[in-house]
Amino acid sequence: MTKKIIGIDLGGTTVKFAILNAAGDIQQKWSIDTNILDDGSHIVPDIVESINHHLGLYDMQPQDFVGIGMGTPGSVDRQAGTVIGAYNLNWTTLQNVRQQIETGTGIRFAIDNDANVAALGERWKGAGENNPDVVFITLGTGVGGGIIAEGKLLHGVAGCAGEIGHVTVDPNGFECTCGKRGCLETISSATGVVRVARQLAEEYAGDSQLKANLDDGQAVTSKDVFEAAQSDDPFALMVVDRVCFFLGLACGNLGNTLNPASIVLGGGVSAAGEFLRVRVENYFKEFTFPQVRESTQIKLAQLGNDAGVIGAASLALDFDQD
Ligand SMILES: [Zn+2]
After folding, report:
1. pTM of the full structure
2. What confidence tens digit (pLDDT) does each residue in 84-127 have?
3. How far is the CA of 182 from the centre of ligand 1 (A)?
C-alpha cells in the first residue's frame, strides 16, 4: 500500500494533524487552535478547511489517502461517526462528525475516543512494540486508558472499556467526579498527587520544604511533588510512595486480569520517568501472581504528544481491508 493516512488529535485547545505513511511514520505535521465558540460549531468546518488547505500545499488528492482517523473527547458512537458530551469542546448536542468530514474532504473517516487512540499509538509505534496485548494508562489532569487485547481495542457494551481512571483502588478514599469514591484518578492524576500531598501534610510532623509550601498556601503541582521527592524530601517521598502504591495496585489487577505484554504509563505525571516507573513496578510485583509478574512489563510511554495522531491515523488502516 503506497497510500497515506491522516491522523487528527482533537483537544480543547488545539487540533493536531499528521500525514503518515502506512508504516506509521509521520511525514507532515501541523496544528490549529480549537475554536470552541458558538457551541463548538466551528470545529469540524475548521478541520475540513485545514485538511483541504494542506492537501493543496503538498499537491495531494483525496485518492492518495486510505482514510482519516480522529481521536476526540466525549462519548463516541463509532458506527454512526458521531460525538456527544465533549464539554471541553462545548459539544453538548450530537455532532455528525464523520458525515461532515467525509463530505468536506472526500476521504473516508473513522473516529474513537482520545484515550483509546493514544493507546493505539503507543501500542503501534511506541513502548508497546506493536504487541497484540498492551494496556495504556495516561496520567494527566485526569487518568485515562485504553486496552488492546489480542490485537483489538476493547470498547465494551457502552464504550466504557479502558476507563482505568475509575478503577476503585481505595473504597474509603477521595470522592471522584464520576460520583463514586477512591477512583485511581483521584490519587494518580496530576491533581490527585497534590490532593494526596495535602491529605498527608495534615499528619506529617517532620521537616519538609514541600510540606512548608503546602501549609503556606503556595500553589504546588504534581511536578513539584516529584521534584521534591527526587531531591530526597522525606515527606514528598511519602506522597510519591502512596501514589505509586495505588498505581501499582491498579496495574497489578490489570495484569492479573489481562496479562498484557506491557502496561505503558504516559501523560504529564509520567514525566517523572524511571523514578515513577520503578516504584510502580515494585508494587505491581507485590500484587501480581508469579506468571504475570514475569511476563507483563511496566513501561514508560515513548511518543509523548504524537501518540494521539499516530493512533488516530491507525484507525483508518482498517479501511484498507474493506
Ligand atoms: Zn471515578
Report:
1. 0.94
2. 999 999 999 999 999 999 999 999 999 999 999 999 999 999 99
3. 7
Residues 6+ apart with CB under 8 A from 230: 272, 275
Residue given cell 500531598 in the structure block: 197
CA–centroid distance for 53 within its chain: 29
| Percentage with pLDDT > 90 across the chain | 96
Asked if residue 320 has pLDDT above 80, the reply is: no
Measure 174 CA to ligand 1 centroid, in angstroms.
10
Find out whether 17 and 7 touch, Cβ atoms under 8 Å.
yes
Task: For residues 248 and 286, give the distance between their C-alpha atoms in angstroms, rounded to a whole number.
Answer: 8
Distance 170 CA to ligand 1 centre (A): 11
CA of 176 to the centre of ligand 1 (A): 5
Coil vs helix vs strand at 171: coil
CA distances for 242 relative to 202, 219, 246, 288, angstroms: 15, 21, 7, 18
pLDDT tens digits for range 252-307: 999 999 999 999 999 999 999 999 999 999 999 999 999 999 999 999 999 999 99
The cell for 61 is 488528492
Determine contact, residues 133/148, Cβ cutoff 8 Å: yes
The CA 77 to ligand 1 mean position distance, Å, reads 22
Q: Which secondary structure element, helix H or strand E, spans residue 256, and what is its range? A: helix 234-258
Q: What are phi and psi of 263, to 5 degrees?
A: -110, 115
